[in-house]
Amino acid sequence: MRNQILCSLISLALLLLASPSFSQSTAEDHVEGDENSPALNTLFDAIRQDDTTLFDEVLPTIENVDAADERGSTALVLASYYNRLYMLDKLLYAAADPNVGGAMGNPIHGAAYKGFTEIIKHLVYHGASLDVADSQGTTAMHYAVLGSNCELVDFLLARGARFDIKDNSNMTAREYADKLENRCMICLFTPCTESDE
User: Fold this and answer.
1) For 155, how many CA atoms within 13 A lie in the half-sphere containing its CB?
2) Which residue numbers in the chain have pLDDT < 50?
3) Which fold, 34-189?
4) Distance in angstroms (rounded) separating the CA atoms of residues 71 and 32
5) Looking at residue 62, what DSSP letter applies?
6) Angle in degrees, CA 57, 58, 64, rounded to 5
7) Is 37 exposed, middle or buried (0-12, 13-18, 19+ CB in 10 A)?
8) CA–CA separation, 57 vs 71, rounded Å?
9) CA 46 to chain centre
């Protein structure tokens, strides 16, 4: 009897939490100006929580997969930042634009900041711009250098990313590599001889 009451209370609590008047969404997670806001908020939560089941349920109901929340994040930006490769691919195949971002930057910025080379490979395959800068003038190359990620720097260089773009601090990725004295990256920018290393 006690278990039945407990189950009934849990079911009631879940029902109340699922109804709009008891929603737990916060202002920072609210999606502005879109009739699919509850669905988008659920999609964003699924990405943050790595809930692929919920993600798969909600994604087909989303009309604009490039809609952003108040912080300027799109679903693709979040999937990139949280290293959600499965979700990222689903969003890209649902026609999410890898070059759409906002105040938080583009998907490539979040992935580069966190050092997620595999995510960046998928974004580039789907047409992400390598040299786009965020609001601080920072490119994926800057983030890769600042994160001391030689594998990512090598990948970006092989795909033609520039290392001479200045950020808002008037520094290029190459200058950051020099300042950090990171031989691995310096030698990627300018081939080093054995005596240099």
Assistant:
1) 20
2) 1-35
3) 1.25.40
4) 10
5) -
6) 145
7) middle
8) 24
9) 14
